[in-house]
Design brief:
The chain has 11 helices and 48 strands. The chain is globular. The strands form 10 sheets. It has a 22-stranded antiparallel β-barrel. A 5-stranded mixed sheet has the order 9-14-15-12-13. It has a 4-stranded mixed sheet with strand order 4-1-7-8, with no helix packed on it. By secondary structure, the chain is mainly beta. It starts with a helix and ends with a strand. Among the domains are: 20-119, Immunoglobulin-like, CATH 2.60.40; 126-231, TonB-dependent receptor, plug domain (Ferric Hydroxamate Uptake Protein, Chain A, domain 1), CATH 2.170.130.10. The longest helix is centred in the N-terminal third of the chain and has 17 residues, at 2-18.
Amino acid sequence: MKNVFGYLIFFVATVMLNAGIALAQEGELRGKITDKSSGQPVSDAIVFLEGQKRQLATAAGGEFTFLGLWPGTYSVRITCAGYRDFIIPDIRIHAFSGVLLEVQLASSGGEASTLSMQRLAQTGAVHLISKEYIRNTPVRGLENLLEQESGVIRQNGELHVRGGGTGELSFFVNGATATNLLTENGAMTIEAIPETVEEIQFNSGAFGAEFGNATSAFTHTTLRSGEAKFKATFDYRTDDFAKPGEQFLGTSSFGYRHAVATLGGPLGERLRYFIAGQHQYMRNRTVSFVEPFRFDNLTDDGLGGRPAGEPLPDAIIFEQNYLPYNWLQNNTVQGNLVFDAAPLSLRLTGAYVHDQRPHGTDTFTQALTNYFNLERSRENTTNTGFVSLRATHALSSAAFLAFNASYSNRSFSSADPAFGNDWMSYADSAKVTPLGYPGWVERYRGPLAHSIILNFPMTARGAAHNGFGKNRQSHLGFSADLTAIPVPFWKIKTGARFDRWALRHYGVANISNALTFLYGSNGNTPREFDSPEQRALELARAGAISHCGYDVDGNEADAGADKPQQPEYLAFYAQSEYRLHKVLLNAGLRYERIASKATVLLLGLDPLFDPYVLLEAKPTDHFLPRFGFTLPLREGTSLHGSMGKYLESSIFQAEPARQMKYEFGLWQAIADAMEFNGVFFSRVDKLRVMDPTGYDEEFTDETRGIELNAVLRPFQRLQAEVQYSWTDFMDDESPVTRVVASNGTILYYLTANWLSRVPLPSHRGILQLDYRFAKNEETTFLRGLGLHMIFSLTSGNDYIRSDVPLSLGQSNPINFGVRPLMDSRFTAPTTTAQTPSRFQIDLSLNKIVDLGSFDLDVYVHALNLLNAKHVLNVYPYTGKPDDDGWLSSPLADPYKQLENYEAFYRAINLENRWAYTRATGNDIYGQPRQLRLGARVSF
């Protein structure tokens, strides 16, 4: 705790001196007012920000600036003696950016005033996802929205940005950290309900010094606030129009039921609130192709210990596109309260998420293996709480100060519903048999597995849960900032951020062994130990128990070898921005101090009795310069570029991943409603992995590519966007698929898994079309009718094709077709080939009906409209998705003579990818079509 208070004192002192932030999310509104007749600046004009109780007078040059504006839509009113009042409605302000207004003000007796409005130039690639887009698009959820952006590829269920690896994204909500450090794929601790989102900003370029702790990209979500009038919505959507195995309009139902309610409005003059609740349920949470099959009267083959010829408990039946006992239930509550008493504004944000789903049922491989014991599946439960407070204070019309504090807590458990955290009861027949599950072999050994058709294993009904896991992470974060414009062309930012996590993990991989070790096979011979340390060491080995922040029995521990990992992140930055005659120059320097607090035990010659030494990874300090520019080439054309050094902080025994980014682009306006932006980027990634045993190696990757975007803003009901991205991987080193730093001692700590070369598609193109009629159209039928379509085309990716070997080797007659994917010693000749490309159409169609006091919006969403069976991966011997090469091999001939063997093999492997998923964790095909019908009522 002393260290924490020390950091806080240092942090506050620095803020008082530097007045800085790590993530100043407010936007700005700039303008210049001139006389329409003479073109001379109009000074002392009064500019009102409607509904915000903010006003200011223009300077001698006619300029004005509003800083610290929360993202949203604003209206401006301009008044000046001798001139007509001028109102400018619907000015959209985005986070981290701004809008420039150029107003030619007309005299009282003259013509109407005129306006030119444009976004302030930025130096890197920034993608904005508005609440209107979220409402109209057929996709839902942050990852699905990001997948529609340039440079983003989803491969095997994980997002990759500009060729980067998983876990290289950072997430923020209202300025507060929302990244889950306990996952390798960079998941969010908490995700906003889409209906609560004002906008999402996705930055994949070489961003400025105010942003950090991310290499591929960062995502910032700004939440909606309550408005001046009460508003409420209720939204319900479902695909539950058919029973499992049946279809509606040629489409399977996954039991999707989703409801969202929102409320927002004022509480007096200064308070506004916004709250939302969401309930989601899916009967089958894994949207995948499953080909139906049925096997009756199968018997045990006697190879697993049961009598040969013993009948299975029941027939094995799988329905089309359905995995049994694979439900999901999620309940979320989010809200915020805004207190606005200019010049002070307070914003309190909170959220709570409860998520529950069965463990070990979400793939066909798991569902088949556990078919007779699905009702005994463990349940995964995640509870997440989040709260943040943001205070902003306008020091003057040209400077504002902000402070942000946040706290989150996430807990996870994978437990037997009957016994909860009492994991020692999971594999104890004395506790499980009374629940109606007999047939145990010994006190701590459950019923023998069934073995069918050459030792294919199937878990027996009532089999013991032999594993248990739980983890918990909490996060405390502080940031502060000062943004100032000393003169109209110069803006400065300076800031600081401090984040601290407490990470706990506990897992038991072999409960039966642990109980047998402690009490003997009959449960009546308890083992004695010379010391608690001896018990902890030997029990951890016997039960394959990994623990950090918990002792060997699963009780929370705060000191010694079992203490939680508490990584810390401290950052300061200073940034200077010059805007003069549409030229933008941006230069900044960021300092980051990263303390992973990863620990290693160095044991003596006799680990049971010799003292041990607990080593902690040393903090690392980094200075990261950033530069950017925008240069106008002519009217409507500009060149922009940026470069800088970046880090991805690590909680492991590896130095932070380092990256150098370069980006250069050309922006071109085309008429009044279109614009084009082309970007070339390059990134060089470096990762150094070390441990106290002497292992020390550095890995380097280089990636380059281009992104082309053309946007048609709303024009006669139509708006559209075309994207193309190309990525080229240049790697001078031999391919490294996984780097692991591990010490193998009593202490469990998270290891560094860095995917150096995940094969990714090089080309991706997206066309989005949105066509909609306003609610006041003359033709009644067309009023409120809208259409949004997404066309996406993705190239294939490289894979290693292997020659079929002449022997089974380390494989068997069930998994021979995926042997190269699971046997690191496989050495048959190989070549590089490419998987097929894939094309997909997603559709949203809606109709808004004005019913007087409220609007009714009825819509249908079709994902993968053509129900295309997209090929994501192929078998290494054949390069095909439906033939692994085994049944055509002479090695299979003797086995094909066995009863049911060939039919069973085709059903589980060639049609349903059992062995492939078991070997890789991935599927060969993408998702089948989904049809969702919904209705939204807005008051």
